[in-house]
Specification:
The structure holds two protein chains of two kinds. Helix content of chain A is 28%, strand content 22%. Chain A is an alpha/beta fold. Helix content of chain B is 38%, strand content 27%. Chain B has two helices and four strands. The radius of gyration of chain B is 12 Å and the shape is globular. The chains are: A alpha/beta, B alpha+beta.
Chain lengths: 467, 88
C-alpha cells in the first residue's frame, strides 16, 4: 500500500475535495504555520469555491485567507481563536456569513458528534512515516503536542498528513497513528521555527503585575484547594507566569506536591514539574522550546488530545479534574461575564481557546487583570461579548482588590479571614472609574460578524461589526 | 501667554500622551487617541482647560494619546506650553 503522494495538489484531488466542502487545520505551528496557506493556495488554484475552513485557531500569518474570501474560495470560517490582524478584517465584515467561534473543547465535541463534519483534514506533522504515523516532537519544525489535531484525524472523511521530516516506518512514539491517515505528502518546510515556538516568556517586572500575581497566589493558598494532589492551569501572560512563580515558592515551602499541570504548557510549568510541584504535565499545546524539549524527553510530560483536554462530549475530560485555573480578560462585567474575543474598540482579537472549558471545569476559576489598561477600565456594566459566562468565574484579581463572585460564600469568608483585600465588584468598578473617568459606550454595529458558540454547542453571544 | 517656538512633551508609550505645540494665529487642537470613542470629548475638554489656565490663546496643539489618564494629559500639555513659551 502506498499513501505517499507527490504534491499537496494531488492529495487534495485524491481526497475528492469539491465546492462547498469543509477542510480543517490545527494551530500548533501558530504564527509560523506554512501549511494552511500552502493548502488554501492549491485549493484556490484547483478552482474550488464555497469552502468552509474549520481551524482550531487562526493567526496573522494566515492573512492570505482574506484573498480567498474575496475570491469566493472561502465562504465560511470556524475557529477557537483569531488574532488581531485577521480579526480586524472580520470585524469590518469581509465574510458574508458570520465567523463561528468555538472553544477548544467545543470544537472537538462538535466534530465528534457530527455537528461540524470535516471532509478533508490537513495535519501539519513535524515528523511522519510513509504510512502516516506522525508526531509533533521531532524535527526542525518540532512543536511538541499535536493535541488539537486528534479529533480532525479521527472524524474527517479524508486525512492528509503534510510533513517536512519523513522518517522510516514505523515512527517511534507517534501521536496520531496510521489507521486514521489516507495520504502523506512531503514539503520543504511546514513552518518557520521562529514563529512556531517563542523563546522563554519573561515573568513580568511591572510592579502592578507583581502585586496582582502575589494576590493571585495568596487566593490559591487560602482557597482550601492547595494541598497534595493539587492541579493547576495558567496562561502564558507575564502576570500569570508571575503568579505561577509565587505559587511555586509556596508549594515548595509547604512541601505540597500537586498531581498535574494542564494546558498550553510553557517552560515555567516545566520548571514546576522539575522542581517537584507536580507529578505530571498534561499538554495539549506547547508554547515554547523548553516545553517541546520536555514533552520529547520526559515521560511525566504527557500529550493529550483536545477531546481529553476539554470536550464536553467526552466521557470525562481533564478540565473536570482541574482545581485552579488562572485566566485573562479584556473586559469583565459586574455579573462576572468575561470577554476575551474583542478589544475595547469592539474588534475581534482573540477568542475563548480553552477559557470557557477550563472555567467550567475548574473548582476555582480566577481572572487576573489590571483595573484598567490604557485608561479603559476592566470592569464594565455589560461586556461587549460574553466569551465565558459569569456563573463559571469565581474570582477577579486586580491590583486594586479581589472581587469574589457572590455565589462563593465560603470562599469569600476564607479570603477575608486570610486578610486579603476583598472588594465588591461594583465598588471596584467605581474605584477604577474615579481614576480613569467613565468611558462613553461604543456604538454597536448593525450586522452580526461572528457567533460565539458555547462549549455546549449552543449560541452564547454574537459579535457585531465595528462602525 | 505667547507660544514662541515649537515644543513637545510626553512619549508614544501606552498609557502616555505625546503633545506638540507650535506658534499660530489662532487656537487649534488636534486629537488622535486610542480611546477616542470612549474619552475623546473628555480629553479635548481637559486640553482646552489647561490652555485656558495658562492663558494660551493662539497655538496649534496636537495630542497623540495612548490611553493616558487625565492627570498625565494635563501634565504633558502644561509641560509643552512651558517649553513653547521659552522659559523651560
Amino acid at each position: 500500500m502506498n499513501k505517499m503522494v507527490k504534491s499537496i495538489r494531488e492529495a487534495i484531488q485524491l481526497a475528492g475535495l469539491k465546492d462547498g466542502m469543509t477542510v480543517s487545520f490545527h494551530h500548533h505551528l501558530r504564527n509560523g504555520d506554512f501549511v494552511l496557506n500552502m493548502v488554501m493556495n492549491e485549493i484556490a488554484e484547483l478552482g474550488c469555491k464555497d469552502i468552509f475552513v474549520n481551524a482550531s485557531s487562526l493567526f496573522d500569518v494566515h492573512m492570505p485567507l482574506l484573498d480567498h474570501i474575496e475570491n469566493g474560495v472561502v465562504t465560511g470560517i470556524s475557529a477557537d481563536y483569531i488574532s488581531a490582524g485577521l480579526g480586524r478584517a472580520f470585524s469590518q465584515g469581509v465574510l458574508e456569513k458570520p465567523v463561528q467561534f468555538r472553544t477548544h473543547g467545543g470544537r472537538p465535541s462538535d466534530i465528534s458528534q457530527g455537528n461540524t463534519p470535516i471532509d478533508v483534514a490537513f495535519i501539519a506533522a513535524p515528523a511522519a512515516d510513509p504510512m502516516g504515523n506522525c508526531s509533533g516532537k521531532y524535527g526542525k519544525s518540532a512543536c511538541g503536542s499535536l493535541g488539537y489535531a486528534f479529533a480532525d484525524a479521527m472524524f474527517a472523511k479524508k486525512v492528509i498528513v503534510i510533513t517536512d521530516n519523513l522518517m522510516p516506518y514505523p515512527l517511534q512514539d507517534w501521536s496520531i497513528s496510521e489507521d486514521w491517515v489516507d495520504f502523506v505528502v512531503t514539503v520543504d518546510a511546514i513552518g518557520n521555527p521562529k514563529g512556531i515556538v517563542s523563546g522563554t516568556t519573561q515573568i513580568t517586572r511591572d510592579p502592578v503585575g507583581l502585586v496582582m500575581a502575589a494576590h493571585a497566589a495568596k487566593v490559591i493558598e487560602h482557597s482550601g484547594l492547595l494541598k497534595d494532589g493539587f492541579s493547576f492551569q495558567t496562561g502564558a501572560g507575564g502576570a500569570s507566569l508571575a503568579a505561577a512563580k509565587f505559587l511555586k515558592d509556596i508549594m515548595l515551602e509547604k512541601k505540597i506536591q500537586g498531581s498535574f499541570g494542564l494546558g498550553g504548557i510553557t517552560g515555567y510549568m516545566v520548571d514546576m514539574l522539575q522542581a517537584g510541584c507536580f507529578r505530571n504535565l498534561m499538554d495539549v499545546q506547547c508554547f515554547d522550546l523548553k516545553a517541546v524539549e520536555s514533552i520529547r524527553n520526559d515521560p511525566r510530560h504527557m500529550e493529550i488530545s483536545a477531546m481529553q483536554y476539554a470536550s464536553p462530549a467526552s466521557r470525562s475530560a481533564v478540565v473536570d479534574s482541574l482545581d485552579v485555573v488562572i485566566l485573562g480578560a479584556t473586559e469583565i462585567d459586574t455579573d462576572f461575564n468575561v470577554n476575551v474575543h474583542t478589544d475595547s474598540n469592539g474588534y475581534i482579537m482573540g477568542g475563548s481557546g480553552g477559557h470557557s472549558d477550563t472555567a467550567a471545569g475548574a473548582k476555582l476559576s480566577m481572572i487576573i487583570a489590571p483595573m484598567f489598561r490604557a485608561r479603559l477600565p476592566i470592569v464594565t456594566d455589560k461586556v461587549t461579548c460574553v466569551s465565558t459566562p459569569g456563573k463559571d468565574i469565581d474570582v477577579l484579581v486586580t491590583q486594586g482588590g479581589i472581587a469574589v463572585n457572590p455565589k462563593n460564600v465560603e470562599l469569600t469568608q476564607r479570603l477575608k479571614d486570610a486578610g486579603l483585600p476583598i472588594v465588591d465588584i461594583r465598588e471596584l468598578k467605581e474605584k477604577t472609574e474615579r481614576i480613569t473617568g467613565t468611558p462613553q459606550r461604543l456604538p454597536k454595529g448593525d450586522r452580526v460578524v461572528a457567533e460565539v458558540i458555547g462549549r455546549n454547542s449552543q449560541l452564547q453571544d454574537v459579535i457585531y461589526n465595528v462602525l | 501667554m505667547q507660544i514662541v517656538k515649537n515644543a513637545a512633551a510626553g512619549t508614544m508609550e501606552s498609557s502616555d500622551a505625546y503633545v506638540e505645540i507650535e506658534p499660530a494665529q489662532e487656537l487649534t487642537v488636534q486629537l488622535e487617541s486610542v480611546v477616542k470613542v470612549q474619552f475623546g470629548d473628555a480629553i479635548l475638554s481637559v486640553v482646552q482647560d489647561v490652555l485656558k489656565e495658562n492663558g494660551v490663546e493662539k497655538a496649534n496643539v496636537r495630542v497623540v494619546d495612548r490611553g493616558a489618564l487625565e492627570c498625565v494629559i494635563r501634565a504633558r500639555v502644561e509641560t509643552a506650553i512651558n517649553r513653547g513659551k521659552g522659559d523651560a
